[in-house]
Amino acid sequence: MPATLIPGSWVKSRKSEANGTCIEALQLPNGRVALRNSTHPSGPALVFTAAEMDAFLDGAKNGEFDAFVAYNPRS
After folding, report:
1. Would you say residue 75 lies in a domain?
2. Is the pLDDT score of 23 beyond 60?
3. 8 Cβ contact partners less than 8 Å away, ≥ 6 residues apart
4. Is 20 part of any domain?
5. Residue 24 placed within a domain
């Protein structure tokens, strides 16, 4: 779905880099969440159910995706 078709205030992480390299999120009705690339705000958005977001965030909090992130000693 084009992100421009989804009205609302997108939220970007405080850890976002100065050049805007980040993912933005938007809370939708019924607990759904839309995600988009902040460097392409008019590009596509992915929409997830509340259960899908819960499962992803739980995995992220438990380190299940840590291998996907390059080591950065400044983090």
Report:
1. no
2. yes
3. 26, 27, 28
4. yes
5. yes
Number of domains within the chain: 1
Maximum separation of any 2 CA atoms in the chain, in Å:
39
Domain presence at residue 73? no
pLDDT given at position 56: 95
Q: Is the pTM of this model over 0.90?
A: no
Q: Which amino acid is at 43?
A: G
H helices present in the chain, as ranges: 50-61
Average pLDDT over residues 40-52: 94
Q: Look up tokens 């259960």; give the residue.
A: 51
Residue 44: give the domain boundaries. 3-68
Output the six-digit token pair for 35: 């995600």
The average confidence (pLDDT) of the chain is 87
